[in-house]
């Protein structure tokens, strides 16, 4: 069997992704060996590759993947060879044909969720689940703003919110993305590459503003997010696609309406076995029932991961992207 795995020995641009070949690793005690069938691309992979999120070098890359268990280490119970599973960390190394993982970090795939969909969505849908179901207090009838609504997390989040009876305003930067966001259910789509966000949000909400903003864009949308909110609203700033938000004077939150801001990360919503199994059960329910349909906008060969990073960072991708081993 051929084994290849991405390796980062120096932080940098997409060219920093190197490939190592070798023997397929063996699982140790408590571990399983997965043969990947699909790997999910995430914006966070670019933060690891470039150093925005610190990693120890040398390092693997990638968090999200699906495949089949092909070997089981000592002491593992509850798994069999051939089981279909997906993972979303811990640790980096999903950009590989095979991966040894702790058995308790794996999620079994239900029959109604394909490998490609699981790889395209487990991390992004779990992020959505944690943010929509547990981080913010989202109520039916609310109007909520979602930035980068046609991205991987964005398209999933829009549909998840619609399934909860929310009116959704989405921001996007192209005609194609505008169509995708509308098809996902956005009630209003704002072309934030062309117009100011906050005045249109105010107009749509008859001046009130929105009680919650989900913002994975970061630096470029931070001010507009605050300006779009109703008093005591919550800004969920969960990513940095345009760069990190820094140097904030907290007084601005008072001036703009006694606002709340949180900067959550998925890991803190999936810390306990109870949180993990309840969260993932909601994810499989949303994906399996078709309430959330995952759009795989692009598929690349695993070896073309660098090109996938170039396209993701250039805003050329839509929905989720998978890499095929
Ligand atoms: P996306 O597919 O959403 O890609 C990012 C999108 O951001 C782009 O398509 C683009 O959409 C928009 N964008 C706006 N400004 C820029 C810019 N300057 N450069 C590049 N893109 C820009 O990525 P993901 O679905 O993988 O992730 C979405 C966000 O969710 C990321 O910020 C990521 O870090 C975050 N995230 C956070 C997690 C957490 O635990 N906190 C977990 C998982 C993801 P457009 O062209 O329409 O503007």
List the helices and strands and how they pair.
Elements: E1 3-7, E2 18-22, E3 31-40, H1 43-50, E4 64-72, E5 84-88, E6 98-102, E7 107-108, H2 115-135, E8 143-146, H3 152-163, E9 167-172, H4 175-184, E10 188-191, H5 197-204, E11 210-215, H6 222-227, E12 229-237, H7 251-255, E13 260-262, H8 273-289, E14 296-301, H9 305-313, E15 320-324
Parallel strand pairs: 8-9, 8-11, 9-10, 11-12, 12-13, 14-15
Antiparallel strand pairs: 1-2, 3-4, 3-6, 3-15, 4-5, 5-7
Helix pairs in contact: 2-3, 2-8
The protein binds NADPH dihydro-nicotinamide-adenine-dinucleotide phosphate (NDP).
NADPH dihydro-nicotinamide-adenine-dinucleotide phosphate is lined by residues 42-44, 123-124, 127, 148, 150-154, 172-173, 177, 216-217, 220, 238-242, 264-266, 312-313, 315, 317.
Can you walk through the features of this model?
By secondary structure, the protein is of the alpha/beta class. It is built from 9 helices and 15 strands. It folds into 2 domains: 3-122 and 272-324, Quinone Oxidoreductase, Chain A, domain 1; 140-263, NAD(P)-binding Rossmann-like Domain (Rossmann fold). Helix content is 30%, strand content 26%. The strands form 3 sheets. Strands 3, 4, 5, 6, 7, 14 and 15 form a 7-stranded mixed beta sheet that branches. Strands 10-9-8-11-12-13 form a 6-stranded parallel beta sheet, with helices on both faces. Helix 9 (305-313) links the parallel strand 14 and strand 15. Helix 2 (115-135) packs across helix 3 (152-163) and helix 2 (115-135) packs across helix 8 (273-289). The longest helix is centred in the middle third of the chain and has 21 residues, at 115-135. The chain is globular and about 60 Å long. The two termini are 12 Å apart. NADPH dihydro-nicotinamide-adenine-dinucleotide phosphate (NDP) binds at residues 42-44, 123-124, 127, 148, 150-154, 172-173, 177, 216-217, 220, 238-242, 264-266, 312-313, 315, 317.
């Amino acid at each position: 069997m051929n084994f290849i795995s991405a390796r980062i020995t120096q932080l940098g641009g997409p060219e920093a992704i190197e490939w190592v070949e070798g023997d397929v690793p063996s699982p140790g005690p408590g571990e399983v060996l997965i043969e990947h069938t699909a790997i999910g691309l995430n914006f966070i992979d670019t933060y690891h590759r470039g150093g925005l999120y610190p990693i120890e070098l040398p390092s693997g890359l990638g968090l999200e993947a699906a495949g089949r268990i092909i070997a089981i280490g000592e002491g593992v119970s509850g798994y069999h060879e051939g089981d279909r599973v997906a993972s979303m960390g811990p640790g980096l190394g999903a950009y590989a044909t095979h991966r040894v993982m702790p058995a308790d970090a794996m999620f079994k795939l239900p029959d109604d969720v394909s490998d490609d969909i699981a790889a395209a969505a487990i991390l992004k849908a779990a992020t959505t689940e944690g943010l929509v179901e547990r981080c913010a207090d989202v109520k039916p009838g609310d109007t909520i703003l979602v930035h980068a609504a046609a991205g991987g997390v964005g398209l999933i989040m829009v549909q998840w919110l619609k399934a909860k009876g929310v009116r959704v305003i989405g921001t996007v930067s192209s005609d194609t993305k505008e169509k995708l966001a509308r098809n996902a259910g956005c009630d209003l789509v704002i072309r934030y590459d062309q117009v100011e966000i906050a005045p249109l949000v105010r107009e749509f909400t008859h001046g009130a503003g929105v009680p919650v903003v989900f913002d994975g864009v970061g630096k470029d949308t931070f001010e507009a997010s605050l300006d779009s909110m109703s008093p005591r609203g919550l800004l969920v700033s969960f990513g940095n696609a345009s760069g990190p938000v820094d140097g904030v004077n907290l007084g601005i939150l008072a001036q703009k309406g006694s606002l709340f801001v949180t900067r959550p990360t998925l890991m803190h919503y999936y810390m306990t076995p109870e949180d993990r199994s309840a969260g993932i059960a909601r994810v499989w329910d949303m994906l399996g029932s078709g309430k959330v349909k995952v759009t795989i906008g692009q598929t690349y060969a695993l070896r073309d991961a660098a090109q996938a990073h170039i396209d993701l960072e250039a805003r050329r991708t839509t929905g989720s992207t998978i890499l095929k081993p």
